[in-house]
Amino acid sequence: MLFAVASDCVSVVEILLQKRDCKVNLADSDGVTPLTKAAGEGRTVILRLLLARQDLDKNLKAKRHGSSALIVAAMNGHIDVMRELLSHGVVDMESQRLNGDSAMHVSAYMGHVKAVELLLAAKPSASWNITNSRGATALDYAHLRQMNDIAFALEGAGFQRGQGYGTSFDLTYPW
Known about the structure:
Radius of gyration: 16 Å
Oligomer: single chain
Number of strands: 0
Distance between the termini: 16 Å
Largest sheet: none
CATH architecture: Alpha Horseshoe
CATH superfamily: Ankyrin repeat-containing domain
CATH topology: Serine Threonine Protein Phosphatase 5, Tetratricopeptide repeat
């Protein structure tokens, strides 16, 4: 299944998903699932097919870095994928990687303005104002990277700086 997702073989994914014994949550040695792979590579069509499965765990995280599908999509700026995930409502928007970074953290750091706007629109509350393991908020990353549009949007939503301003950012991808 992972190979079919990575290769963008929609027809193969469709065939595999029709099989009764299809293990849609089966992960590789790093804990990457078909959903996380599709999200990270912007495979929106495949993502929709996977999301239609009742047995899909939409909040599984990769073991190696703790990244959920939403975080991986945000990291890569895949807005359509993020929109699909959020439209299913059961995606944990406050999920954090092992280092404490959320989808908002990685969106802000990578400069994905549309991703930040989408996340703010989906959940405008200040619960996004969480700190990672270094005490940094998404606003800290926006300032650190001089992403003024993002910093302005986050400040307007009530974000505050944490204790981690000026720290480095772990850009290790989940696979």
